[in-house]
């Protein structure tokens, strides 16, 4: 049996929960190796303490699900079947009285919840998220390799974007070039909408790229990532076009120092909040504290945002095998926006930085 499923079954036993029904595409992939977006159709994995698990999916996906190596039953539902009837029948055939069922409460929408309570009368629903987050928190060698590969494509994407910078090009022109080159290399999916922001737009941490043209003296910020065999990367680099002024340089070098110092401090045994505070203190001492409005970083894996959350209040102890981003930023409206982001894998005494694109302040001519 696959180790991940085994751990989930053990948890059901320990907590005396009769069943789990897992439906988020990320956790279905984590548990089965089957990665698929079912849109409005039903996709899920039913797991029990002892009885054999099963995967339920649209009939059109049955062959693909089997091809991933899932060793148990795959149950297909056609577009005219009621998938909830099928689910109920198959769950109850394995465990007659389901008193408790673990669900991803943050994921199951009200309409689906109503389907479940109508069919599993009196069943108590328990949150499954925390357990799944804990399982996904520590990455194995294979996962690390995939994350490294995803990071290499992110480096390539930034390189492509930087080499496209020219007077008069728009943010969307550059994005189109980046994604075109990635697709030619076999990357079909970005881990989130690619961001290329220039000038004043870069001063918004989550700006919307558009038809703004790049001008000399602007900073150009790239924030992007790819999905490689189900695993995500996330990188941010900021470069100057043609020239920069003194304040832009000061902002840039403050962010760079904060980023490097936080990375240097990352190792097993420190707390997540220590890392955020190291970066935040550097930025605050330089006078930009109020312009760093977000956490230092976030976990990365199957999801582009997962555990751990690297905030200045999280007391979580960093452990070997965690993967997260380190991404301080300073955003001064009408002056400059700079963020530098790398993906790190925690080793036994430090980190391996997965993203490698250079981060000294570069002038693109
Ligand atoms: Mn990012
Ligand atoms: Mn990020």
From TrEMBL:
Secretion signal, residue range per the UniProt entry = none
UniProt cross-references to InterPro entries, sorted A to Z: Creatin/AminoP/Spt16_N, Creatinase/aminopeptidase-like, Creatinase_N, Pept_M24, Pept_M24_MAP, Peptidase_M24B, Peptidase_M24B_aminopep-P_CS
Locate the Peptidase M24 domain: which residues? 145-348
Coiled coil (residue ranges): none
Source organism superkingdom = Bacteria
Q: Which organism is it from?
A: Heyndrickxia oleronia
Tell me which cofactor or cofactors this protein depends on: Mn(2+)
Q: By what name is this protein known? A: Peptidase M24 family protein
Q: Which family would the database say this protein is a member of?
A: Belongs to the peptidase M24B family.
| UniProt xrefs under PANTHER family | AMINOPEPTIDASE (PTHR46112), DIPEPTIDASE YKVY-RELATED (PTHR46112:SF10)
Keywords from the UniProt entry: Hydrolase, Manganese, Metal-binding
One Pfam family here: Creatinase_N
The residues covered by the Creatinase N-terminal domain are 4-138
Q: GO terms for molecular function, please?
A: aminopeptidase activity; metal ion binding; metalloexopeptidase activity
């Amino acid at each position: 049996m696959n180790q991940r499923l085994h751990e989930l079954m053990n948890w059901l036993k320990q907590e005396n929960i009769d069943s789990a029904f897992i439906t988020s595409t990320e956790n279905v992939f984590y548990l089965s190796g089957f990665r698929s977006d079912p849109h409005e159709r039903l996709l899920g994995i039913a797991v029990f303490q002892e009885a054999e698990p099963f995967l339920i999916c649209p009939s059109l996906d049955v062959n693909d699900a089997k091809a991933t190596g899932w060793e148990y039953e795959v149950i297909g539902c056609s577009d005219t079947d009621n998938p909830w009837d099928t689910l109920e029948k198959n769950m109850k055939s394995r465990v007659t009285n389901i008193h408790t069922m673990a669900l991803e409460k943050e994921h199951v929408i009200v309409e689906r919840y109503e389907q479940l309570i109508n069919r599993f009368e009196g069943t108590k629903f328990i949150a499954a998220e925390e357990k799944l987050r804990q399982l996904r928190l520590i990455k194995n060698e294979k996962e690390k390799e995939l994350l490294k590969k995803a990071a290499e494509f992110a480096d390539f994407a930034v390189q492509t974007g930087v080499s496209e910078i020219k007077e008069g090009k728009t943010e969307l022109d550059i994005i189109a070039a980046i994604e075109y080159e990635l697709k030619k290399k076999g990357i079909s999916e970005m881990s989130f909408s690619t961001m290329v922001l220039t000038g004043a737009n870069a001063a918004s941490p989550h700006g919307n790229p558009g038809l703004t043209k790049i001008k000399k003296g602007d900073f150009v910020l790239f924030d992007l990532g790819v999905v490689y065999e189900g695993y995500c990367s996330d990188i941010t680099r900021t470069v100057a076009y043609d020239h920069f002024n003194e304040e832009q340089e000061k902002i840039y070098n403050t962010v760079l120092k904060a980023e490097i110092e936080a990375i240097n401090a990352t190792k097993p045994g420190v707390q997540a909040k220590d890392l955020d505070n190291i970066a935040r203190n550097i930025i605050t001492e330089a006078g930009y504290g109020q312009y760093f409005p977000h956490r230092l970083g976030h976990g990365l894996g199957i999801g582009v945002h997962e555990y751990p959350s690297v905030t200045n209040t999280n007391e979580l102890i960093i452990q070997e095998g965690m993967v997260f981003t380190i991404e301080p930023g300073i955003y001064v409206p009408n002056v400059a926006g700079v963020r530098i982001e790398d993906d790190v894998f925690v080793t036994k005494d430090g980190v391996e930085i997965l993203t490698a694109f250079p981060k000294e302040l570069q002038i693109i001519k």
